[in-house]
Amino acid sequence: MNKKILYFLLINFTITWGAWITVLGINQDVPLQPGQFSYILYGLGGLLGPVVAAILVRGVWGEKGEVKALLKQTIHARVHIGWYIFSMIVPFILIITPSLLHLVFTGEFLLHFNQPLYLIFLTLPVSIIGGGLEEVGWRGLLLPELCKKYSILVSDLIIFPIWAIWHLPLWFMKGTPQFGSSFMMAFLSLLGITLVLAVIYVKTKSIFLCVLFHSFINSFGMNIEGPRSVTAMEEVVVIVFKITMCALIFWLFMKQRTSSIIHKSDFEISFEK
After folding, report:
1. What angle do helix axes 37-61 and 3-27 make, rounded to 10 degrees?
2. Region label for 78, one of left (φ > 0), alpha (ψ between -120 and 50) or beta (otherwise)
3. 8 A C-beta contact, residue 77 and residue 210
4. What is the distance between the alpha carbons of residues 243 and 240, in angstroms, rounded to a whole number?
């Protein structure tokens, strides 16, 4: 295994799982709430794991200038406005999919905004800090390192189960959005999200856009509620629709690249000489 990948995963999981398992020990059956020390630890664990791991690996085991290149990609925001629209619309469609398909099944459209849509945009910075910045590690380091050996598609198929397992402690933590929900549904959803994030990264070379897409997923997901009770058939149809939609996006943008090892130019990083 590529040593950068190995060290990234070891450092990332050690920091994040160390923080989250500590939270589980502190809180036990007490729901996680803002203001608690454990809540801060919960946030820092998710943020620092991927970010610190990516920076350390680039700095210690990478070539000269890799950290600077990573940070440059992280703030690279000068991309076509169409990608900003894409990074907002696709998450919105994914989040309201249960409501749309419930309408098809029952003729009833159930969609509730916990706050006005414009306020959701105002809370986006919280979603960036509380989740979006993970992309510095997942797309900023793990994806390009895997793509040195594998195709983009194979790399995504390696990343998404690792990414899902990384989130696993949250399903045992009362007070998180994951607690009480289906891990398998989230696991499968991450497959589609991983495919779309690869498209954004390859086409824009911008970790910033990946952060934005991820943050919109989280922000819309926390503030938009669909039908609370659905049949097992609806759940299956929803997840199949999401994966199919994301796979179609991936195919449309990447159809000439999925059958062979990625070209180095697609993930080229400008290092200082």
Report:
1. 170
2. beta
3. no
4. 5
Over residues 33-54, the pLDDT tens digits come to: 888 999 999 999 999 999 999 9
131: its two tokens: 């989740």
The answer to whether 267 touches 147, Cβ cutoff 8 Å, is: yes
Query: Cβ(155)–Cβ(143) under 8 Å?
Result: yes
Q: What are phi and psi of 112, to 5 degrees?
A: -130, 130
Provide the b/e sequence for 184-202 (b: ≥16 CB within 10 Å): eebbbbbbbbbbbbbbbbb
Radius of gyration of the chain (CA): 19
Q: Quote the DSSP letter at residue 149.
A: T
Look up residue 147 and give its two tokens. 């793509």
Q: Quote the tokens at residue 128.
A: 């960036």
Instruction: Look at residue 257 in the predicted model and tell me its pLDDT.
Output: 53
Number of helical (H) and strand (E) elements in the chain, helices listed first: 12, 2
Q: Which residues contact 150 (CB under 8 A, 6 or more apart)?
A: 158, 261, 262
Q: Are 109 and 97 in contact (CB under 8 A)?
A: no
* DSSP one-letter string for 55-70: HHHHHHHS-TTHHHHH
Count of CB atoms within 10 A of residue 210's CB?
28
- pLDDT-derived band at 26 (thresholds 50, 70, 90) equals very high
Question: What would the pLDDT profile of 222-273 be if each residue is shown by its tens digit?
Answer: 899 988 777 888 889 999 999 999 999 999 998 755 433 344 444 454 444 3
Residue in the block written with tokens 């495919």: 195
Q: Could you tell me whether strands 112-113 and 224-225 are parallel, antiparallel, or unpaired per DSSP bridges?
A: antiparallel
- The helix/strand/coil state of 112 is strand
Q: Which of 149, 169, 217 is nearest to 26 (CA)?
A: 169
By the 8 A CB rule, do 172 and 42 touch?
no
